[in-house]
């Protein structure tokens, strides 16, 4: 098979940033994706309905004439007002709320330290059907960074889901066999997004033969057995797994530093890599489910009507290298193998 037409995909986890980066990266995602769940971890974070409305306007202004729907999220803090969340969701402004454990990742300092302090918001969300997107890593300094996701499931996520059973939860950017297994055994209230980069790199790719800062992200890539478990989850057809690229641009200066930022800028090559992964798993017929159908089903949103056609060229595609932005160049994620699939048509 060298052509594949699917409903236009959505990206259920995306960082669009602000200012010069927003202006450069928003058109890249809008080229291939119809909608995206937009992460709220700006500096300062997007914590109120009013701030989400203002951010949505800045995103729209960066995309003149484009049909692209930013699905906004609110950054959960210990002072989040449940009424503001429910009103912002009821009006259609906000699609979900994001939980960052304080200190877990980029711009997460205002996140949640004590889940008991947000119990009221979570109960109101469960009642109103507002999904919670979760960055699933503990921040306990005594827990090894490679174990932080698995420990989070036992210490935080499972107790949280038992305490607020009606809450719809998306475990974002899962990286372990434990997370994939946990989602598989849970009920319909739990789903997970999987990134493109975690489907193709493991920690050895990042660290052997020299450190590759553009492979550094959070949660950090794990060992090969986990990558294989993620590929099995993504390509297996289970509707609880769907695409969230977590495309997270940082300038090269911020990445290639003594203390480099976490994040892989995958948006320009996400669909090319995804087609490669699904073809290698002999599962191209399941790509549409993962990229275009399972996400809207979980979020209770309509499927996209438009289509997109992927084509496979015999010669490898030139890698885009980096994207020029007003803040400096941003290196595009390179999977380390040649890509042949590309977007051929768009309707
Ligand atoms: O690698 C990451 N980058 N993981 C996150 O959770 C945040 C993101 C970012 O905002 O750069
Ligand atoms: Zn993210």
Summarize the structure.
The protein is of the alpha/beta class and 347 residues long. It is 35% helix and 16% strand.
**What fold name goes in the CATH topology slot?**
TIM Barrel
Order of secondary-structure elements: EEHEHEHEHEHEHEHHHEHHHEEEE
What's the overall geometry? Answer: globular
Per DSSP, the total helix count is 12
Helix content class: 25-40%
Number of domains: 1
- Main sheet record: 8 strands, parallel
User: How far apart lie the N and C ends?
Assistant: 21 Å
Mean pLDDT: 96
Account of the protein in words:
It is a single chain. With 347 residues, the chain is an alpha/beta fold. The chain has a single domain (3-346), classed as TIM Barrel. Helix content is 35%, strand content 16%. The protein has 12 helices and 13 strands. It has helices at residues 19-32, 49-61, 82-90, 119-128, 148-163, 177-185, 197-200, 203-207, 224-235, 252-255, 270-280, 287-299; strands spanning 3-7, 11-14, 35-38, 69-75, 94-99, 132-134, 169-171, 190-194, 241-243, 307-312, 322-323, 330-331, 341-346. The strands form 3 sheets. Strands 2-3-4-5-6-7-8-9 form an 8-stranded parallel sheet. It has a 3-stranded antiparallel sheet with strand order 1-10-13, with helices on one face. It has a two-stranded antiparallel ribbon with strand order 11-12. β4, α3 (82-90) and β5 form a beta-alpha-beta unit. α3 (82-90) packs parallel to α4. The radius of gyration is 19 Å and the shape is globular. The protein starts with a strand and ends with a strand. Bound molecules: (4S)-2,6-dioxohexahydropyrimidine-4-carboxylic acid and zinc ion (ZN). Zinc ion is lined by residues 13, 15, 39, 246, 248.
């Amino acid at each position: 098979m060298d052509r594949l037409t699917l409903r236009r995909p959505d990206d259920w986890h995306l960082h669009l940033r602000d200012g010069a980066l927003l202006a450069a990266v928003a058109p890249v995602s809008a080229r291939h994706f119809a909608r995206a769940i937009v992460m709220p971890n700006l500096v300062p974070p997007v914590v109120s309905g009013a701030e989400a409305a203002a951010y949505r306007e800045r995103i729209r202004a960066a995309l003149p004439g484009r049909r692209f729907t930013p699905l906004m999220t609110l950054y959960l803090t210990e002072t989040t007002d449940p009424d503001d969340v429910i009103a912002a969701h009821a009006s259609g402004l906000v699609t979900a709320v994001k939980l960052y454990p304080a200190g877990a990742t980029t711009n997460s300092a205002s996140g949640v330290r004590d889940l008991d302090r947000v119990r009221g918001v979570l109960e109101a969300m469960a009642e109103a059907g507002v999904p919670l997107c979760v960055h699933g890593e503990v921040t306990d300094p005594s827990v090894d960074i490679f174990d932080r996701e698995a420990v989070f499931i036992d210490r935080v996520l499972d107790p949280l889901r038992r305490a607020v059973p009606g809450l719809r939860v998306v475990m974002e950017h899962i990286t372990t066999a434990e997370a994939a297994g946990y989602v598989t055994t849970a009920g319909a209230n739990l789903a997970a997004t999987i990134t493109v980069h975690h489907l193709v790199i493991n920690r050895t790719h990042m660290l052997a033969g020299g450190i590759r800062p553009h492979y550094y992200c959070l949660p950090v890539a794990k060992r090969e057995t986990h990558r294989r478990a993620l590929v099995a989850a993504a390509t297996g057809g289970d509707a609880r797994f769907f695409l969230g690229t977590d495309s997270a641009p940082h300038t090269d200066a911020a990445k290639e530093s003594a203390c480099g930022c976490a994040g892989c800028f995958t948006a320009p090559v996400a669909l090319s890599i995804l087609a490669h992964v699904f073809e290698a798993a002999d599962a191209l017929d399941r790509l549409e489910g993962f990229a275009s159908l399972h996400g809207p089903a979980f979020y209770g949103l309509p499927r996209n009507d438009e289509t997109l056609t992927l084509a496979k060229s015999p010669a490898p595609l030139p890698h885009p290298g980096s994207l020029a932005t007003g803040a400096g160049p941003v290196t595009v994620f390179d999977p380390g193998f040649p890509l042949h699939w590309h977007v051929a048509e768009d309707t």
